Amino acid sequence: MDINTIIARRVRDLRDQQKLSLNALAKRSGVSRSNISLIERGESSPTAAALDKLAVGLGVTLASLFEDSAPAAAAAPVSRLAEQVCWTDPASGYMRRNLSPGLPSPLQLVEVEFPAGQTVRYDSFHRDVDIQQQVWIIAGQMHLSVGEQTWDLQTGDCLSMALDKPITFHNPGKIAARYLVALCK
Q1: Is 165 exposed, middle or buried, given 0-12, 13-18 or 19+ CB atoms closer than 10 A?
Q2: What's the alpha-carbon Rg for the chain, to the nearest Å?
Q3: pTM of the full predicted structure?
Q4: Phi, psi (5° rounding) for residue 161?
Q5: Phi/psi-derived region of residue 159, left when phi > 0, alpha when psi is between -120 and 50, beta in every other case
Q6: Closest to 60 (Cα-Cα) out of 166, 131, 5
Q7: Quick one: what percent of the chain has pLDDT higher than 70?
Q8: Is residue 39 exposed (0-12), middle (13-18) or buried (19+ Cβ within 10 Å)?
Q9: Is the CB of residue 47 less than 8 Å from the CB of residue 87?
Q10: How far apart are CA 93 and CA 113, in angstroms?
């Protein structure tokens, strides 16, 4: 299934489960009603920033927007590489792969490949749920800013943070960086 179709179905299902109108989700997320409508119809390839705002508005993690909406009873405890959902941010070119199986769990794992010289900012941090995140650099380097604090991370470094402040990911290197994100709510 196409990634934009998965995202479309998931956003629409989460909005329906919460009985939110397009206008209500637009107000909660800061994403325009028309953009949400395009995303839900699979006619838009949303940016990471737009998806993060929708995740905040829906009270879920960004990674959960890439999950299949199929009933959990059908989910297997193993997530096979060939079945893992990959998505590429159209603005920065960063690629994220959901590693976790579709079973309900407070922990989600995501692998990211982040192009050299690129930056992504997540300004949506007013969440209804507490989410903790750790970023472990597998290869390359990243500058991560959380609020006013910045860390220069190299291969092997791991940063733990709460998703309660604006976060900026920047790859200052000349090669793509690879890292693992572990999210827990």
Answers
A1: middle
A2: 16
A3: 0.87
A4: -155, 155
A5: beta
A6: 131
A7: 94
A8: buried
A9: no
A10: 9
Residue 69 has pLDDT above 60, yes or no: yes
Instruction: Give per-residue burial for 110-127: e unless 16+ CB within 10 Å, then b.
Output: bbbbbbeebebebebbeb
Place of tokens 């927007």: 65
List beta partners, residue 132.
Answer: 162, 184
Secondary structure in 3-state letters for 150-175 = EEEEECCCEEEEECCCCEEEECCCCC
Q: Is 88 helix (H, G, I), strand (E, B) or coil?
A: strand
pLDDT at 73 over 60: no
- What is the phi-psi region of residue 167: left when phi exceeds 0, alpha when psi lies from -120 to 50, beta otherwise? beta
Instruction: Collect all residues with Cβ–Cβ distance below 8 Å to 159 and sequence separation of at least 6.
Output: 134, 135, 144, 151, 153
Bridge partners of residue 167, in order along the sequence: 122, 146
Whether the pLDDT of residue 71 is over 60: the answer is no
The total number of residues written for the chain in this structure:
185
